[in-house]
Amino acid sequence: MSSEKWPWEVYSDETKHHNKYPKEYKDAVWWLNSKPIKDEPQYSVFMDKYPAVEGHRLYIPKTNDAPGMIGLCFQEAYRDGMEMIKEGKIEGFNMGMNINEVAGQSIFWPHVHFLPRHKNDIKGRNAGMRMAVHTIDPYNPDNQIDKKSK
Prior knowledge:
By secondary structure, the chain is α+β, with helices and mostly antiparallel strands. It has helices at 30-33, 67-86; strands spanning 38-39, 43-47, 57-61, 92-96, 112-117. A hairpin with a 3-residue loop joins strand 1 and strand 2 (43-47).
């Protein structure tokens, strides 16, 4: 693997000393990135500073220890996505989470990624699997679980 860091791992001068492990919602780095596009009592929505596709949003609960709040974020992302499809703004969407560093999480506060999708917005075999931080080709023999039997 390359020693080059992903852009979200390299903080700007303004944020390089910012805590990646916030204890409170308002302490997380996304407040330094932008203003929320939606600010509700239980969650906020921000545009992702390092979007995987145009329109990449983050749905962020205001509490980090209530599983129901992350469920609410998924629900609201789904609702917004379906409305965008109905309005003809997008053709589909991905939603997902990265939990812990091994899964690609870089800000350790729960949040849902919402990626609006359009036909051919990302090229290649794994275009529909864009939620992965490192897109994995399931057909590559090196990525198969049981390499000996293949």
